[in-house]
User: Which sequence fits this backbone?
């Protein structure tokens, strides 16, 4: 049995006929960028997230860059970012001349430690970027409280968490602005890159729309310098098609995660912790395994795909060495980079495949006597 970490082909197969029809429709239209399908997708994402605005762009990374530029982050400004996350969270800050200020994570959810946020504040702090990692919202109440006291913007990196909720508030609607990715491996993934920005701020939305088209308004008139970050019509129509299935796919992911939770409960693996009031959408199902490398080889032999998110925390990356962090700066994240391991949780998993994943994990425990 071969069970990949993610089965994009399996997801595509039942959509193929309608996907091809839509692509052909777009190609015949001659309208390839920021057309009616992009507008429709923006409206649907805004409704899903409970925000007034959703602005499509070329990638999740661009969503972060455009949002940071729009709220005025520039050279010398500090943005607080968890060190255990995908590179784009901090890379976007550096890209516009800001300084990422890293903080540690909580050991149970892998999300930003709110207590560490307050300790990291300086007079140069202009924004806090909580990352809703693996499909679960960060603990937003203390983060929002700190932001309110200091009049600091909260930029949600919700790239992995479309559909997630915190106290019935959708991810992307909690801070001043929310950023999503449509990278193919996301719960709503395109067939290439794509991103979306959500906000309830009318002026900010207007500015972001200008920034994504080189700062032009009207066309060919530039009062500000923007960038080229537009979503293609083909991506938009295919994302719109997949959005029809997102609710059922999310339910399947949650059911798969619940199965793993039941079968692995009480064992040596640290299974995901879901905080009270959070609706987890499981972009990843991530366990903690002390003997990770041996476990990976065991699962590989059993035909089970796995993934490591992330093998090196951002404060230890070579490009950030000038920020002054060192090994030992953030012990929780550094432990997570050694033990975290993601298992297949995609909606198309068959019952016998889930059973095989669990049996393979438990056979490793029997063989090694440890995890």
Assistant:
């Amino acid at each position: 049995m071969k069970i990949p970490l993610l089965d994009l082909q399996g997801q595509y197969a039942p959509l193929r006929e309608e996907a091809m029809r839509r692509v052909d429709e777009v190609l015949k239209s001659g309208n390839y960028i920021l057309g009616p399908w992009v507008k429709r997708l923006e409206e649907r994402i805004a409704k899903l997230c409970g925000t007034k605005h959703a602005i499509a762009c070329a990638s999740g990374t661009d969503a972060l860059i455009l949002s940071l530029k729009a709220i005025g982050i520039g050279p010398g400004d500090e943005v607080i970012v968890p060190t255990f996350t995908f590179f784009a969270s901090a890379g976007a800050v550096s890209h516009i001349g800001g300084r990422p200020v890293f903080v540690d994570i909580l050991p149970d959810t892998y999300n930003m430690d709110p207590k560490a946020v307050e300790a990291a504040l300086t007079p140069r702090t202009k924004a806090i970027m909580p990352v809703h990692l693996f499909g679960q919202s960060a603990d937003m109440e203390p983060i929002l409280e700190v932001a309110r006291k200091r009049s600091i913007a909260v930029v949600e990196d919700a790239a992995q968490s479309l559909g997630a909720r915190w106290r019935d508030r959708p991810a992307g609607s909690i801070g001043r602005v929310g950023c999503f990715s449509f990278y193919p491996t996301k719960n709503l993934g395109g067939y290439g890159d794509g991103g979306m920005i959500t906000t309830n701020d009318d002026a900010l939305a207007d500015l972001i729309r200008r920034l994504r088209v080189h700062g032009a308004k009207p066309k060919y008139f530039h009062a500000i310098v923007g960038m080229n970050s537009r979503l293609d019509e083909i991506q938009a129509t295919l994302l719109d098609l997949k959005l029809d299935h997102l609710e059922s796919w999310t339910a399947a992911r949650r059911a798969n995660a619940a199965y793993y939770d039941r079968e692995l409960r009480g064992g040596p693996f640290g299974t995901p912790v879901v905080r009270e009031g959070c609706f987890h959408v499981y972009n990843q199902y991530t366990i903690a395994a002390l003997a990770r490398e041996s476990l990976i080889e065991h699962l590989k032999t059993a035909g089970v795909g796995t993934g490591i998110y992330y093998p090196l925390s951002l404060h230890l990356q070579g490009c950030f060495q000038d920020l002054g962090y060192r090994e030992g700066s953030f012990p929780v994240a550094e432990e997570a980079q050694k033990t975290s391991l993601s298992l297949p949780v995609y909606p198309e998993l068959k019952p016998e495949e889930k059973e095989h994943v669990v049996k393979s994990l438990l056979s490793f425990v029997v063989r090694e006597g440890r995890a």
